[in-house]
Amino acid sequence: MSVELLFVVPILFWTLMSTFVFFDAYRAEAISTRAGLTIADMYSRETDPITPAYLNGTRQLLRSLTEAEADPDFRVTAYQYFETDDEYRVIWSRNRGMTPNYNDARFANIRNRVPDLSDGEVAILVETRTQYTAPFTSAIAPFDVDSLREIEFNTFVFISPRPIQVCWQQTSTSDQLCDRFSG
Fold first, then answer.
1. Rounded to whole angstroms, how far apart are CA atoms 95 and 147?
2. What is the pTM of this model?
3. Handedness of CA 164, 169, 170, 174 (dihedral sign)
């Protein structure tokens, strides 16, 4: 019995620890997804101009919501569809950590990931990227789980602006770009 116990206890211990790590990774992914949705909802309701301070505050909020790392990355892009040209045009794009910002040419590269819009409709794309590191790893030869050491969670959230008017700060000066939307 004691010999069998020597064989079974390490396997049971590894199973318990692996279950904990997998559960923790799924929990972190769910939190990252919900944080991306929260950030998108926040931008969709904003009526004041988006400033660099607002973007920095968004990064701090994302850091607080995910509890995953010191500097999570995000990019916010407002874009509009034009049916006559059958193209999407970027109105405004800013990021913290995810480079580069979108322009019309770069945005065309992700067109297959963008939902269909009606003519003149505006949407906001919020992308977040957070890193997850497992709390511990099992380095015992037959039980080594390399795939959970470092994971990157990416969210890609589309949302329509909710207020009638949305303003974006064009440059570091006080220039504003404001548009009225029907939605």
1. 28
2. 0.77
3. positive
CA distance 96 to 73: 6
Cα→Cα distances 148→7, 26, 126, 131, 162, Å: 25, 11, 26, 11, 38
Contact between residue 117 and residue 25 where contact means Cβ atoms under 8 Å apart: no
Pairwise CA distance, residues 50 & 2, whole Å: 67
Q: What is the pLDDT of residue 3?
A: 84
Q: What is the chain's length?
A: 183
Residue bearing tokens 């874009």: 79
C-alpha distances in angstroms, 19 versus 25, 84, 137, 183?
Answer: 10, 53, 12, 46
d(CA 65, CA 16): 27
pLDDT single digits (tens) 11-24:
888 788 878 888 88
Nearest alpha carbon to residue 88 among 110, 69, 66: 110
Report the SS3 class of residue 169: strand
Residue 94 backbone class (left: φ over 0; alpha: ψ -120 to 50; beta: rest): beta
